[in-house]
Write a structure and sequence with these properties.
Number of strands: 11
Shape: globular
Structural class: alpha+beta
Number of helices: 3
Distance between the termini: 52 Å
Order of helices and strands: EEEEEEHHEEHEEE
Largest sheet: 11 strands, antiparallel
Strand content: over 45%
Length: 256
């Protein structure tokens, strides 16, 4: 029962309303069902123009594009995507030629399914609670809902922990954006060196150098120094033994 493979390409001329308009929307996807929450394949979308208004703020985005992929291999998942646009502008800021790629490698497939099951159950339960409170709010109902949300938070923490397996890799690449002050460029790769729990990671908040016992980090980032004005901690060492902070000033940029 149900679909095992879905593929489609749709083009929509968009719509215009008082507070939002979309111009030329295109969606393309080709997916194969592995399980309820795992669909192997890729999808993409593109919107030629977006114009909107929120209060007194008017914004515009041109050539907004996104793509997504998921590759299932035995019990591992690789998933990610890219977001990009040619221009974003409003009354306060202009950003041009912006893009970023996000990728997660070696995701435990069983852990992902268990996470999605927990997440779905938590969302539906929260919606039921909100609906009950909205119909007739009492102090007892509000307190019960708060307790339920705390319990749900603990359940989600347990679900997230299933991802903390050796060789899990999170990547941000091809990060770039052009602002009036200059260009932002960067990349970041985090890789778990061993199976880990949140309890083991808690001391990292007090001693950041302990993170290197669990995670390998490869990162590069540069942005206009003008954006970091008034933030001295950018150049301040995080812990004893560091000669500089996370960033050093190089010409007109901060560089990591």
């Amino acid at each position: 029962p149900g679909f095992e493979n879905i593929a489609s390409k749709m083009v929509w001329e968009g719509f215009a309303a008082d507070s939002l308009s979309l111009d030329e929307v295109e969606v393309d996807y080709d997916l194969k069902k592995i399980s309820t929450y795992i669909w192997d394949g890729k999808a993409s979308y593109a919107i030629k123009g977006i114009k909107g208004k929120e209060g007194e703020v008017v914004f515009e985005i041109s050539n907004f594009k996104g793509d997504y992929f998921l590759d299932y291999n035995d019990n591992d998942l690789t998933t990610g995507g890219k977001l990009a646009f040619d221009l974003f502008s409003d009354s306060e800021i202009t950003i041009e030629d912006a893009s970023v790629k996000l990728e997660a490698n070696k995701l435990d497939a069983q852990g992902y399914e268990e996470f999605m099951t927990t997440y779905t159950q938590t969302v539906y339960s929260a919606m039921d609670s909100f609906a009950a409170v909205a119909e007739g709010e009492t102090d007892e109902m509000t307190e019960a809902m708060e307790q339920q949300m705390m319990a749900a938070g603990m359940q989600m923490m347990t679900a997230y922990e299933k991802f903390l397996k050796k060789d899990l890799e999170l990547k941000i690449s091809s990060l770039k954006a052009t602002l009036p002050e200059g260009e932002i460029k960067g990349k970041l790769t985090l890789k778990l060196l061993k199976d880990t729990t949140f309890a083991q990671l808690m001391p990292v908040a007090a001693q950041p150098d302990l993170a290197l016992d669990f995670i390998s980090i490869d990162s590069e980032l540069s942005f206009p120094a003008e954006l970091g004005q008034g933030t001295p901690m950018l150049e301040a060492p995080l812990f004893p033994g560091m000669e500089t902070g996370m960033f050093a000033k190089k010409g007109s940029d901060y560089v990591h």
